[in-house]
Amino acid sequence: MAMKYRKLDSNGDYVFGHNEDDFYHGKAAVGQAIYTSLKRCSANGSRTPV
């Protein structure tokens, strides 16, 4: 099963209302998950992703 990750808008909020167009799949989903985790980590001053 391939990874699936919901897209974020320019404000960092989840995107809804466009069915499958609201999701990244495969490598893009992995990249978005890493980016989101690192961004959350830096926002809370932690050294490890949450």
Account of the protein in words:
The chain has 1 helix and 2 strands. The protein has one helix spanning 27-43; strands spanning 4-6, 23-25. The mean pLDDT is 87. By secondary structure, the protein is α+β, with helices and mostly antiparallel strands.
List keywords for this structure.
alpha+beta; 50 residues
**Record field, number of beta strands:** 2
Biggest sheet overview: 2 strands, antiparallel
* Radius of gyration, taken over Cα atoms and rounded to an integer in Å: 12 Å
Hey, roughly how much beta strand do the residues contain? 5-15%
Instruction: Provide the low-confidence segments as ranges.
Output: none
| H-E string | EEH
Number of helices: 1
Q: What class would the helix/strand composition place it in?
A: alpha+beta
Question: Taking all residues together, what is the mean pLDDT?
Answer: 87
What general outline do the C-alpha atoms trace? flat
Residues in helix, %: 25-40%
Spatial strand sequence of the major β-sheet:
1-2
Q: What is the CA-CA span between the terminal residues? A: 24 Å
Task: Give the helices and strands, then pairings.
Elements: E1 4-6, E2 23-25, H1 27-43
Summarize the structure.
The protein is an alpha+beta fold.
